[in-house]
Specification:
By secondary structure, this protein is an alpha+beta fold. It has six helices and 15 strands. About 16% of the residues have low confidence.
């Protein structure tokens, strides 16, 4: 085995930095890579060196999230080609899944994929695995002609958004402190993989209680947003520990004390409009009853 894996792996080669090569890389039946260390043969079954030794590679994985992660991190000369350069891949995937495609996301996974906005950015993105979460949208429809996304779900106004501030307080004497610390201990690692130019902050109530975190899209800032709304997309039971408990007293972190966590789309309402909004970011909200009394609304996203 070559002592330097990067010298023989196609993923570390110069070609791996070019977006135009993504479709050929994934769709070609057989390929020969001339790497720095040796010649590598790859088909849809194996990848091996000229000596016959095989090794693992992610270059043939056709899962959409992985494709987006690989593709978005590659260099593209013209930003306007962001979606066009994946058209052949999109058609091949659509043949197999029969799913509907909307500008970089798939209908059957809209709630999940809406959280990770990638087509509008020229930065590499990495989507997180949202395990055991269920869709809370009552309906999702896209108007191709008008390019309007309509979602039926719960919508709630956020009172405050503030920049994220670290806290090392322990033990936790309030829910606010617990969430603030949890956000830094856990979500800091999650947010690390998002667009680097995005602004990370906390979502708060009028009483200054932290209810979650937000990640604003590129070009958005708290100064430019007068009011922000959270649109619920997915929910799951939270493993947050109640302030009166300690992490040691919670077996395998299963005692969530009734807390839920929602992945939300952050929206700004357009002036003089009837439930029309634009996306400004995404985030996660922790609650016991925050969305409970909110009626399902028909929200149009332009």
């Amino acid at each position: 085995m070559h002592s330097n894996y990067a010298d023989i792996s196609p993923e570390f080669g110069v070609l791996a930095s070019r977006a135009w090569a993504t479709q050929e890389w994934l769709l070609s039946g057989r390929m020969i890579f001339y790497t720095k260390g040796c010649i590598v043969w790859s088909c849809k079954v194996i990848t091996q060196r000229k000596t016959g030794g095989s090794f693992l590679t992610t270059a043939r994985n056709l899962k959409w999230k992985l494709i987006v992660e690989i593709y978005s991190s590659r260099f593209l000369t013209n930003a306007s080609d962001r979606l066009i350069a994946l058209e052949c891949l999109r058609r091949e995937i659509q043949k197999k899944t029969k799913d509907t495609y909307w500008f970089g996301i798939w209908k059957n996974a809209t709630s999940d994929q809406l959280v990770w906005s990638w087509a509008s950015t020229m930065h590499g993105v990495r989507s997180l695995s949202i395990k055991k979460a269920k869709n809370v949208c009552n309906g999702i429809r896209f108007d191709d002609e008008k390019r309007i996304l309509t979602i039926l779900s719960q919508l709630k106004k956020v009172s405050k958004i503030t920049p994220m501030v670290s806290t090392d307080q322990s033990p936790y004497d309030s829910i606010s402190d617990r969430l603030a610390s949890a956000r830094y201990e856990t979500f800091r690692e999650e947010l690390r993989y998002e667009q680097t130019s995005g602004m990370v902050g906390s979502l708060r109530t009028e009483s200054d209680e932290i209810i979650g975190w937000d990640l604003l899209d590129e070009g958005c800032s708290t100064a430019s947003i007068s009011e922000m709304y959270c649109l619920a997309l997915m929910t799951r039971k939270s493993d947050l520990v109640h302030p009166t408990e300690t992490t040691r007293s919670v077996s395998k972190r299963t005692a969530h004390s009734g807390w839920q966590e929602d992945w939300v789309l952050l929206l700004q309402e357009l002036p003089m409009s009837d439930h029309a909004y634009v996306r400004v970011g995404a985030g996660k909200v922790f609650w016991k009853s925050w969305f409970h009394d909110e009626a399902v609304q028909r929200v149009r996203i332009l």
